[in-house]
DNA sequence: CCCGAATACTGATCTGGATCAAACAAACTT
DNA sequence: AAGTTTGTTTGATCCAGATCAGTATTCGGG
């Protein structure tokens, strides 16, 4: 159980010039990171409790299921997936984490991490102890609300994916969700990279990998998307929204 | 959109002796309500922001999807279901709420209630503005943590139900979940009433009502449960756990 | 550059649970 | 109590997507 967070405490980063990184206020995440809407003083306090990581390589874990819950992490660059291992030893993908998103809040109630979280790409994170986040939240209404908001959003997302959806609906929702999240990050909402494998997508959406392949091929034939390996281009967003039966995204 | 909360503000309860009710510290919920782990002073402060409702009859709504998010509610007695209406006009059950459980936290991120929430039984609730809850949470670490904990728990629950489960697994998990929640409330964990219809159970578990009937009948034949109308007796919890493939519950 | 191992795609079957159809039982109406 | 409505159960079919089988493509390592 060798986790990056444990092996390489970032408390030391300011003492190690080679690891020095930009302050949150200059971070490429801009307003997307945790301290969104904080005023200047709050941002300075916030930065003091944030630890920036060295690069994390694809395949490296930052949390393991069962780990004591001490820290949460936000993604600066790259992509992570979280997954559980079920009774049959099968991997079950629970979610993907793009830049600006926070990881680990589902561990609060049990005091242990529920999921394994692994980098899909060369990535970087910021980590903070949950204790310091929640204690700061008590004097920063905006931060407290941001935490509530993120957990509430995750609940809504799960209520959607838990619904009774066809394979087409699931794939359309998945593509639109990624598009929206990349757009929020400042990337194109038309063209993006699937950092995760077909197998991961299938597991996340509760489909067979074969079904993912087939639906993507069908969408391409119908001119809705162009898919080449991991590259995706959204060609007909409106029709994807129709299929997903949602006006959201 | 006539909601009980709006029609009958409980701010007035202390002025209306007919509606006076016991203080939280004497409430039948005991330690299960929101102020769990609060000390005496905090409990007194807490009680000042809680509004107790008159009885709510089966079929009455306490929230409607789209309502502005101002208040949350905790169940004192009875049972509620929350549901959404999908694009086809079909009702989709999102969850059931038993005594001691809190309703409405999934509305935070959008500022509007996502779900319709309706009483299944004659019920009673306590309601509080989210603003007063979160502002109090800032001076009560235990309360803030309790809120985080509850949202985190809901995330875990949804991660389970969103999983790729067979009909048998879903029903077994459902029965065990109810059993655990009734037990926590001080009721029997062997024998309880299903306040919700077969149709509601089916919608919640993403099954057809016919499948719910058939699985319950099969479980009864195998001696796992006795089901008579809305009355349920758990006969073989271990085998139910096996079917649910979980050591939890 | 080639080779072996993943990963992705495509076609042929199979199946769990949905859907359709009907009988049945309980809960209201009058 | 008889009739009406609503909810539940049982039986017969059907289908979306899983599974199985085989091929094609990509990628990492020498």
Description:
Two copies of one chain form a homodimer. With 249 residues, chain A is of the alpha+beta class. Chain A folds into two domains: 157 residues, Jelly Rolls; 82 residues, Orthogonal Bundle (Arc Repressor Mutant, subunit A), CATH 1.10.10.10. Chain A is built from eight helices and eleven strands. Chain A has a four-stranded antiparallel beta sheet. In chain A, strands 2-7-4-5 form a four-stranded antiparallel beta sheet. In chain A, a hairpin with a 2-residue loop joins β10 and β11. The first copy, chain A, starts with a helix and ends in a 5-residue tail after the last helix. The interface between A and B is large, with 40 and 39 residues. The first copy, chain A, binds a DNA duplex (30 and 30 nucleotides) through α7.
In short:
The structure is a homodimer of 249-residue chains. The first copy, chain A, has 249 residues and is of the alpha+beta class.
Query: Helical stretch count of chain A?
Result: 8
Oligomer: homodimer
Number of strands of chain A: 11
Number of structural units classed as domains of chain A: 2
Task: Provide the β-strand percentage band of chain A.
Answer: 15-25%
Distance between the termini of chain A: 38 Å
The two chains with the largest interface, and their residue counts, are: A-B, 40 and 39 residues
Q: Tell me, rounded to a whole number, the average pLDDT of chain A.
A: 82
SSE topology string of chain A: HHEEEEEEEEHHHEHHEEH
Largest sheet of chain A: 4 strands, antiparallel
The CATH architecture of the largest domain in chain A would be Sandwich
CATH topology of the largest domain in chain A: Jelly Rolls
Strand order of the largest sheet of chain A: 1-8-3-6
In which range does the helix fraction of chain A lie?
Answer: 25-40%
General form of chain A:
globular
